[in-house]
User: Fold these one by one.
Assistant:
Number 1:
Amino acid sequence: MAVKTRQDYLNSLKAMRPNIHKFGKVIEDVTTDPATKRTVESHARAFDASNDPQYAEDFTMVSSFTGEKIHRWNGMMSTLEEIMANSKLKRWMYRFNGSCNGGVCVGWNAQNVMWNVAAMIDKDCGTHYQERLKNWILAAQAKGLVVAGALTDAKGDRSMRPSQQANPDANLRIKEVKADGIVISGVKAMICGVAASNEIFLLPGSGYREEDQDYALTCVVPKDIQGLTIVETRRPSDSRELEKGWDIPETGITQAYLIFQDCFVPNERVFMCKEFKYTGKIIEYFTANYRACIGACVAGQGDVMIGAGALMARVNGLAASTFAGKMVEMAVNNETTYAMGIGAMALGKKGPGGMWVADSLQAHANKVHVATLPYETKRLCQDIGGGIVETGCFPSYEDFKNPDYGPLVEKAVKACEKYSGESRARAARLSEWLTLGGGVPGCMHGGGSPDGAKLVVRALTPVDQFAEYARKIAGITEEIPEPEKKKK
């Protein structure tokens, strides 16, 4: 059976070699350690939804390769409907968890992007990358794998290309090519959902030139591959993750540095090896799809922020309708990013291998909105919640439960006679987490920077053509080209 259960998933993580570190120690079991159990719980809820008739349509699909029912995040996106399902799943996941779920997101996009690019390389170079990729996808579908995706490198000096760095491992590279595989070294940084994943899909972090060909690699590795050290990063709210009770939700996201030291990857898991000319296409296709779909991520979290605002109003003794105007603004922000992403998909087309690629101009324009509108939604959520949310200034869970003075704390925090002080505290902590803490999903730089998106928008906006439309409407008969640049 390709559709796995929550327990199947948890067992698969428990069976892996411990190689994740945080706070100076190795994490023996990611499913129970306080530093990682919340991101595992977030991803486990995708398996719950896959087996729930209410959500199964969005979380499962029929494999185009086998005709068997599989988890949607292991499937292909060859039609508009299939890539739209990507956005639907992401919005649901944020509604369930309030935060990012990289293991049922980035690897899914990566396998579809590489299906297109592998077709191009195979045609031009006589390689067999697509056949290898298909075999790996079939295995991922059968096992119901959760697959993180890693593009971002540590990078080093931003003024230099990878091959110019004093530290050659500042970017992930091919250190050696063998008859049966490749040896890789280097660092991928700030990668979401690694602790909750079974495998990691590695893609180049940029488009490369010939001198950077050693950095042109694509492959998939098990999370516990020999030679890989994973260091979970510390987020601003991580000091609370070791506390008890409801000071932090049961769900969450973690990010990691992936430090590869002479890791051997067999050929069957390698889908690009030094074909640098195609790295630009990987970035083009990946960012188009990812920046279209991320509009659903922030929309889903925005839905939860509307709900959190409503809860705060009610536990404060007010009707949620008191803040209807603010909630409408929040809803408009949510639907703007969601709809722009869907629009980018609708304007897209099939790539060279038959998988769907969203329209780049619309997708990158959406990324600019993703980097702005959610912050306004967060501000409104704080505004509705009041000072207890924005300042986070109230006692902790352990103070509430203290046998000596806990009842006094409960009485002090309680506002409305209908609801307990604990309910008000839980609602406030959620709003705080969503707007200030670990629930912030990387709106600004997740999936790339807004400045980078603006560069794409600038490149794809035909200003001269638009000027011609305007010239003709105005009845101007003389040509009015862009002035030549003055020589210095």
Number 2:
Amino acid sequence: MSAAAPLAEYFQAAQSWDADRAALQRRSARLAWLLAAAGWLSTVASVIALAALMPLKRVEPFVVRVDSTTGVVDVVPVYAGRADAPEAVTRYFLTHYLTVCERFNFATAESDYEECGAFHSAQRNQAWSALWNATNPGSPLNLHKDGGSVRVQVASVSFFTRASGLADLAQVRYLKAERQAGGAQEKVSHWIATVQYAYAAPAQDPGIRRWNPLGFKVVDFHAEPEALDPTAKESP
């Protein structure tokens, strides 16, 4: 009986030591899981923060102006599309639009197509794309595939105000001078275009903004021969 007592105490101590080791391992495992969870939460929070900040990162084009007399340098304010544009500016845009978008030359056709798209509303751009589609028999690519060209010269721009007071309509008179491939003579026809226009916020895309920095938009466009010319072709 006396010999079994120390042995029982030894087993009891060993069992207590094993229990302490098991409890320590469980605490270590819980701590490891807590640290891992905290790390994952930090990672997820960082990703969410970066995703939230991404819309704030954008490129803002600007123009630096240097006074030729004093040498003072300043930044030209960027037009935001909220001020009323002078009539002279609208007249320039209409003249430029008609000159570029109604002409045709194979050397500049692709560039002219893209530049005109920078001035279109979404609806007008759909009609523009359909017009230039190679499957359209009336496409300029098909009408002048023999190497012909069309030159445009604007004669006048007139503005109209609606009864509601809204001034968003203009009529542009211009002439088209068509030349056949290898031909020396130009065939001139007179046209009149009715244009509905508007000003919107300028595009953020620098490629579009370099063509259209003020957000001028052609909402609707209709052109027809000014005189009855059976050989003249109507524009969309």
Number 3:
Amino acid sequence: MALPKVILQLYPMFPSDGEEGRKAQRPLGNNSEMYNKILHEWDEVVVEADEMGVWGLGTIEHHLHSEGYEVGPNPGVLNARWSTLVKNANIGALGYVVATQDPIRVAEETAIIDHMCDGKFFVGFARGYQARWTNILGQFSGAEATVSDKSEADHFNRKVFEERVEQVIAAWTQESIEFDGDHYKAPFPKDTGVQNYPAREITREAGAIGEVDEQGNIRRVCVVPKPYQRPHPPVMVAASKSPESIQFCARNRFIPTYFMHTLSFVEMANLYVEEGAKHGVDYALGQNQNIVRWPHITKTREEYLQRLRDYDLDIYKNFYGPFFPQFPQSADESEYLSSMEESGIFIGGTVEESIRQWKELFDQVPSEYITLIWHWAQVPKEVMMEELQLFMDKVLPELEIPDFEPIPAVAAE
């Protein structure tokens, strides 16, 4: 038997005195002094969490959060910084919103970070649900934000997302690439290649085979460096609702990362196993799967509810709820607190209550990975680290899972 691999995922969320305090400090995301303080405190958090034995440390890609909710515009820069701080933990991001990114740039950046941390690196991808920034930064792809509503925009976003992810894998694993996707091509223009490349002679003799054609045009490109891990780092994919995301993960040996209620999680975890079998991959239930929860471990239930009130209610009410209608909505504070518990994404109470809830979850799906999110720095660092230590010392040892064999990544065909 083994224990799940724990990932600590951090945004950060700029602290305020609740919703009204956030309004009074508008736009809080512009507060450079606060960000500077948070950024350097982040170093301390990363080091302490590494010493506690977490498997991974992650962050996000979100832009333009003027309210200060999820200030995380560049995960690669942070991961590079953390690579100099940690001794044992893996680092990564959950994750790059690839419909807004150039796949070659993502492949290059992540390969460099993989080398910086000597292979203790994972890469996460997400489709993008926040139109305020995805529609701006992703305008070159035409992929609009989506919440998996089966609309035409949702379908288009998925096509762009899957194409980009597959292109990143190809860039990592193939000596040279030629992309003729519906939404991204390389070399460009595709019909002619890059014409009359001045250094074509040395590229023909010293570059990758097939880069230069007989007319001196660039017909393939070699994306360098290749990752330290071969064929490539572990890939995680954020999923909040869509079975298509789980099927995409299963056939590509990616790790689905479940931002969803337990009932949906159990359903999707079984779908992952079924879909893997169709493609020749024999997943055990829970293997290669990652459950996400927002925990609090407290002395009493009353203290748990108070922490939900102080640290989570604002972002749940004003940000998560409007984006994700599957989360219960309500009118007053007490109803909101009840709906937060019913949402299935918050978990906790006393140590005993926390153990019971986590064991109930793992009795249904013994997930290989756990991602924990605190709304730090709205949650003070000392509170978050105390709760993380309690989870690692008291809760985690109660969650034994099968000793899963690693699922090897595969190179692009």
Number 4:
Amino acid sequence: MRTQQAGALQVATWLAEHEAVDGVYFPGFDDTGVLAAQMRGPGAMVPIHLPGGYQQVRALIERLRLFTHAVSLGGVDSLVQHPASLTHRPVAAAARPADGLLRL
């Protein structure tokens, strides 16, 4: 497993056990076999859901020091993205991702 994927697995595992996190949607947690059949690894993106919605997301983003709140342009920088307020902001509210969704 590549270094980025191993690091993502460590972060995803830690977040999955954190009381402030409602869900972690990391492909490396797949136990159905789909990942192994379709990919060489889980990648390094760790999507999480915070139950407090936008207010909790905003509070977390404001405290981050190692991640920048930005859209990824395909680089390898450590970023955090809140799709509902960045990439999906112009999308109709009914089609927008949940306010509590973050991508690391």
